[in-house]
Amino acid sequence: MQIAAILRILGLLLMIFSTTMLPPVGVALWYGDGALEAFLAAFAITLVTGFLLWLPVRDRRHEMRLRDGFIIVALFWAGLGLSGTLPFVLSERPDLSFTDALFESISGLTTTGATVIVGLDELPRAILFYRQELQWLGGMGIIVLAVAILPMLGIGGMQLYRAETPGPIKDNKLTPRIAETAKALWYIYLGLTVACAFAYWLAGMTPFDAIAHSFSTVAIGGFSTHDASMGYFDSAAIEAVAIVFMLLAGANFALHFTAWRAVSLRPYAQDSEFRTYIGILATVALITSAFLYWSGTFEDAGSALHHGIFQAVSIGTTTGFTTAQYQEWPGFLPLLLLFTSFVGGCAGSTGGGLKVIRVLLLFKQGQREILRLIHPSAQLPIRVGENHLSEEVVEAVWGFFSLYVASFSVMLLLLSATGLDLVTSFSAVAACLNNLGPGLGEVGPHYANISDPAKWVLCFAMLLGRLEIFTLLVLLTPAFWRR
Predict the structure, then answer these.
(1) Given this model, what pLDDT does residue 274 score?
(2) Are 188 and 256 in contact (CB under 8 A)?
(3) I need a surface site. Which of 17, 349, 471, 474 has the fewest CB within 10 A?
(4) What average pLDDT does the segment 4-28 reach?
(5) What is the pLDDT confidence band of residue 404, given thresholds at 50, 70 and 90?
(6) Which among 76, 88, 84, 122 is positioned nearest to 106, based on CA atoms?
(7) With contact defined as beta carbons under 8 Å apart, do 213 and 304 qualify?
(8) How many other CB atoms are found less than 10 A from the CB of residue 306?
(9) What percent of the chain has pLDDT over 70?
(10) What are the CA-CA distances from residue 225 to residues 241, 386, 444 (Å)?
């Protein structure tokens, strides 16, 4: 294990991250809302900490191994979470404890969107912008951004990329060099963000709200600058823009790249995961809208349809925007929407959840086992589209699912032990592990009223979901630390 090389890279990454405190400094200067000193202090502390880590080992250049990549990713996300708390702790508004500040920081960086802050409309604009910026940076993975930058500093990036993006398609590269892959993804990400901000502005948002909400929309984050979230605007046009960009951000960014390069929509139509993704969301939206109208929750079909579609897409993609208190809707709808978040977005997207491709493979594996009971000697490979998947991929998906269920169960028990009721405990773990945000029960509107031990458990759940379980749990195995 290359400790010196790990510290050198961690120091460089923290120095890079310190620059993210500067845009809120500009916002504070523009609006003069009193948060300037907090962001300047946070910038200085993060920059100096990174510099002190980097300085003693600045000349240590060793080739990183995959094991080093896992350690850097885990340490960096922990360091990001801690650094991200500084503006919240140092600012007079909001007045947050360290635990609450850490929860808000990790929620932003993991694009969960669970908040402990009440009274967003009265906060300084710089703080509001910073929350949205955290989600935007976390959406594509700040490590992937670093992969594009670090080669210029003489550091290879493949190990970081592999550690940051575990999953069934982690070895697929869109371009021959990993840095070029990261840049291509970021160009698409940035392009979607700019287009989303412009569309929000045309639909009626102020420039500040348009930029802020484009950050959390494309990141599948769900943070808003208003307590009422998207319901604050009460605009069908704004909600339509949000639906379009949530759907795009929940799709595989590699698919966007392929379609852009081919100047064709055919790659979307040919992709099994994308078709399943659209099919699931369309089905849930139809059921939700029909039940809202049938139950009399909304008097006219138009209102039932647009609220049903918006919440199905928002919760299904794990964005977490709300136009209404969906947790108070009648019947089975809150549970249906919450269970849809377990599927989440596509692999290679900014969405959370199990990912559509894994759910598709689990379904196909279940089908295969039923057929094996009928035809014990038959060779029944699993196919996605025209591709036959290896048994290693199928086993990895089952391994991921088993760890997901085990982790969920343990955290559910821990949360229940803190005194929360079962509905709140179940939905809070689901919302944080799936990087969704709003839950049911006590954590429907916000997470401010739960205990500090519960918030620490949920911080771990958010990190576990963002790093797709394997990356974090591998560090807890004795085998990882053996030479």
Answers:
(1) 94
(2) yes
(3) 474
(4) 90
(5) very high
(6) 84
(7) no
(8) 17
(9) 91
(10) 17, 45, 17
State the pTM of this model: 0.91
The angle formed by the CA atoms of residues 117, 120 and 124, to the nearest 5 degrees, is: 110
Residue 65 has pLDDT above 80, yes or no: no
Give the whole-angstrom CA distance, residue 375 versus residue 369: 10
Nearest CA to 114 out of 125, 130, 100, 126 is that of 100
Packing angle between helix 272-294 and helix 356-374, nearest 10 degrees? 100
CA distance 254 to 276: 17
3-state secondary structure of 387: strand
CA dihedral 105→111→117→122, nearest 10 degrees, is 100
Q: What length is written for the chain? A: 483
**Using CA atoms, how far apart are residues 228 and 386, in angstroms rounded to an integer?**
45
Could you tell me if 112 and 321 are in contact, meaning their C-beta atoms sit under 8 angstroms apart? no
Which structure tokens are listed for 198?
């412009």
Which 3 state secondary structure label does DSSP give 434?
coil
Q: Which two tokens stand for residue 182?
A: 């990261």
DSSP single-letter state for residue 252: -
Average confidence (pLDDT) over 33-54: 93
Distance CA 61, CA 250 (A): 38
Round to whole Å and give the CA distance between 71 and 94: 33
> 294-337: per-residue pLDDT in tens?
998 888 898 999 899 999 999 999 999 998 888 889 889 999 99
Determine the straight-line distance between the first and last CA of the chain, rounded to whole angstroms. 9
Q: Which phi and psi (to 5°) does residue 177 adopt?
A: -100, 140
* Beta strand spans in 352-414 (E): 383-384, 387-388
Q: Omega of the bond prior to 94 within 30 degrees of 0, cis?
A: yes
Q: DSSP state, 446?
A: -
Range 285-291 contact pairs with CB under 8 angstroms and sequence separation of 24 or more:
285/309, 285/312, 285/313, 287/336, 288/312, 288/333, 288/336, 288/337, 291/330, 291/331, 291/332, 291/333
Assign 383 to helix, strand or coil.
Answer: strand
271's tokens: 């992709």
Q: Which residue has the tokens 């979901």?
A: 465
Q: Which pLDDT band holds residue 33 (cuts at 50, 70, 90)?
A: confident
The label of the residue with tokens 């919760």 reads: 315
Q: Residue 260, SS3?
A: helix
Q: In terms of pLDDT, which residue wins out, 147 or 437?
A: 437
With tokens 């709003």, the residue in question is: 438
pLDDT reading at 38 higher than 70: yes
Per-residue pLDDT reduced to its tens digit, 209-258: 999 999 999 999 999 999 999 999 999 999 999 999 999 999 988 889 88
Query: Residue 385's pLDDT band (boundaries 50, 70, 90)?
Result: confident
